[in-house]
Amino acid sequence: MDNICVLLTLFLILPTIEAKCNEKNGVHSFGDNCRFMCHCEQNTECNETTGECSNGCARGWYGPGCQYRDIIDHKFSKHSNNSYSNLATDGKIDTCYREFKNNRTEQLFWSVVLSINETIHEIQISTKVKSLVYFKKFTVFVGYSRLPRSYDTIDERACFRQGHDIPKSSTFIVLCKKPVIGNVVKIELAQSQNVLELCDVRVNGGRNLAFKRTSAQSSKFEGCGTHFCKSSFAVDGYASTKDIYFCSLTDEEEKPWWQMYLDYNIRIWNIKIIDTNNHNQIPYVVHITNTNDTKIGKEGPYGKKGVSHNTHTQSFTMNSAGKFVTISVEGKRNLTVCEVFVFGDCRVNQCGYNCEKKCQCKHATMWDRISGNCAISCDKKERGYQCNMPCKTDDDCTFECGENCFGGDCIPKSGECTKGCKPGWEGTYCKNTCDPGFYGHNCLKKCSDHCKHRNEYCNNVDGNCTYGCMDGWKAPLCDQACDAGFYGRNCTEKCSEHCAGGNRNCNTTTGYCEMGCQSGWTGLRCVNACPSRKFGAGCKESCASTCKNDACDHVNGICRDGCKRGYQGDKCESECRDGTFGEECKEDCSSNCNNNTCDHVTGNCTNGYKPGYKGNTCGEISDNILSDAKPDTGSNETRKLKIALICVGILCAIIVVYATVITILLKRKATHNVKDGTNVSCSGRGNDDAITNKTNKTETVTAEAATEATTELARVNINASDDESHQYTDLTPDTEDVEAAYETIQLE
Predict the structure, then answer these.
(1) DSSP conformational letter for 107
(2) Which of 120, 119, 166, 169 is closest to 1 using CA atoms?
(3) How far apart are alpha carbons 376 and 169 in whole angstroms?
């Protein structure tokens, strides 16, 4: 019945069209001067007056006259259990999906991701009549996702929240309190609801207000001739990307521009510009103004470049209003524009296809904006289906608004709060407090998920968490994590300074150091020094066994109490240097050790000891100095020993000589006696002469031997140094003693 009323109204609004709109380049149109484009299935003709399609709307279009763009058509969507649920975006109202909560604690939801940011302001939802009861207190959120097809959103905001009442029809429309820009739309049921069933969801992206509007351009390319490259080709509905002559094309000039006049000051949410496939895409600059000023500055209000869908399309998302849309490029070049789509709708209190009618609808839907009828209520002190009837009497317009109406404004007679509710209240008459988990103006804000004891416990007016925050979150709203370097309840605990990278690298909830500990520290929060005998990163290194008391610094391993005997260095890793030993290597090896080296711990001579010394440290004089001595040329002790040995050798030689002489003399004497007896008895005097000659020879030999020994002794004494030889003068034989011995031998 409602649709019939709308169509009748459309018939009254649009003047009767005498001439039929002709199809051009496969584009069908309708309405006054054929200024509206048909969007029928299979690109068929539409009703010349209303634009209605007998075979249904083309994919991606819906609403009165199939004029409104559905920005979530066939987009990826999912529900609470992370499975996909694309039946809600397939454009078919008879295909539905249903999800049960079962034993899960989280709220049921459905969400859809868009390819670019869009301005969200109106959502149409279709379900089954039996499932309407579950939509009591449901919420529509709009968020932003950085990654394509990602449902992880940031800056999620509620654009609509249903009150305690249940939607009246299986297909119903909800309006955001104000438009929200984002690329994720989520429908979430209240905590107590157990079933979510969706048959169709549509999100209003506006209608194309650029079709066949008046346009102009800075110049026309000379090579195009009379009938091509016109500015009107960019609003004819024929989005040619192959033939540049069916596009708007300017000469090469400084800052070329193209402009369109929209007839009325309208609300604009998105502009799409299509260029040619073979044209090098240049960033467009877009301006929306209320005048036709074409002096375009360097920076446009929406940036130099829109979001590119592909190589020939740029999109600009906004929430603006104006009469003129101007497109330009920087520098000296040609400007090519093949088609421009301006998606928006009439402003508040404007209705009709051309936005030429005035209306007083409160929260006008797309159906209201086309028909001029007000399905919800009137905006001001008027009444009637089109809110064009004034109050008849003062009583009709006298009503005391509820104390919770925002600004104290409400609709006369009905008492409906016209500007919504004060923070903490909701409903048509603002008599209900926010449900647990919501707060603020019209209860559209959601309590933080980090309130202690769940998000149901926050103040319905200001959102402060009643019982404080979970660990790691700031009071009172508990919507901000602790500052770096702090953690715990109300962020009062300070992170350890021994976290790797500093105290800013700790978990704001637990205080655990997320990058581990600095060298010398251990534990999840890095507040404990390494245990005894351990040090370094992760306390994995052991103190040196040469540290005194096995104790070292837990950070760098330096021996805290010094080194054990025989070792030196910060970590006691080096033995005492040659020639030293003992505690702190302060003791010197004995000078009696060979090469002056000794054991670095005990001081014992490791390479033996010098001649004349014994014991571990070579400090005792040897009992067998002569036999153990080993000459060592070059030292005073060695030279002295050498002289002593020579003297001893000489003495021994003298003794041997004396012994030899005495022995020879004794033998000769015995022989002489024997021979003397024989000669006396047998030989006579001749033998005496012989004996006398032998005796003289013997005396001569003996004297020569004695003289030779004396001479050798004198030679040795002369070669020895004065200081050294006088120590041994008592060993030198006296000449008189030798002569006496010689005389004794002669006598004998």
Answers:
(1) P
(2) 169
(3) 13
